[in-house]
Amino acid sequence: MWLYYIISAVIAAVIYYVTFVPLHYKCGDSGNKKAAINQARRLRKPGTNIPPPYPNGWFALATSDEIKPGTAKSIDCLGENFVVFRSAVTKQVYVLDAYCPHMGANLGVGGIVNGECIKCPFHHWNFDGKDGSLVDIPYSDDLKSVQKFSRIKKWTCREVNKLIFLWYHVENEEPWEIPAISEVENNELWLHGTNEFMIHSHIQDIPENGADLAHLAAVHGPSMFAGTDINTFRESILAIGTHLWDAKWSVSENLKHMTNIKLTHIIQFWLWKFFQVDGDIYQIGPGYVVLKLKAFFGDILVLQTVTPIEPLKQKLSHYFYASGMLGLIMKISIYGETVQVARDAMIWDYKTFVRNPILPKEEKQIKLYRNWFSQFYSANSKSFQDSRNDLTW
After folding, report:
1. pLDDT digits over 34-43, tens only?
2. Is there a contact between 204 and 49 (Cβ–Cβ < 8 Å)?
């Protein structure tokens, strides 16, 4: 009898975990891989005439859950240092430059959220999140004399689809809006898992994969069970089955900052094709992608964000949503997608940026993609060399 209860409890626990507990992969640098990548970064030629490392557009700073009401966080990316905080009163999120103009303390490290304001941890100077203005010096009646010199830059941000985005534009142009997905905003779809990669390449290399259709068979053809190492995955004893891909890339006719990919993915064992996923993929600016996938078991929604941390270091994240009843299938899907992205990551981590690749006629979409992406660079975009020099202190 006790054995029956134990087995039932174990089965129930497994079902609960598979169905309800999100799966999270964090694929950062570790161990020998970190050492190998660091050596490659030191020795490799990054490329010549590399585009600016920080294009104009929306970039994800954090998930909504990372910034709890009444808390602040320091986030460094895009060649800038930010403090991101959320009011405990209105739940509004604000983004300011991180450093207090008084004595240089980082407001995101020990800063005190006070209504719609944040207090510096060093001397409790109080700054308004709505415009970055100094509103109080608790020990001084000389506020007005220093107020006009003490405003902190306030950054435009949006909280959409449970992500916090920052608008980065060196020419200060007005932003386009990020489409809200009601199924995510209203919790109609479940977050079944995430993955996160630190990629050592130029940001343009990552979304360019969407237009590089020829790489799909070369990198993503072998079975996902063969692993992530592109040196060995074709010879793996687990390389059973093949992933077949068909895709068409195009620029949106109505929104110049958006592209679309029509994708079909089929898994084949010998001559037997048994699994097909059809995808509608939208790239929205340089750092955000929405993947809408349809299969026989239901629909999957994947949100992808790419945020430049350094000139040749990108944070790449995916968020997987689907019906709450697709737990087991989603776990397998997340694993498979993570394996496939890890193969790309191995390419990206070691490649050089080729400004003018030699392209046969079958790859004209790569040229079209680069022409499209160039709109996110502008006259005052900081050059790659200047951005690297900023880090050599």
Report:
1. 555 565 555 6
2. no
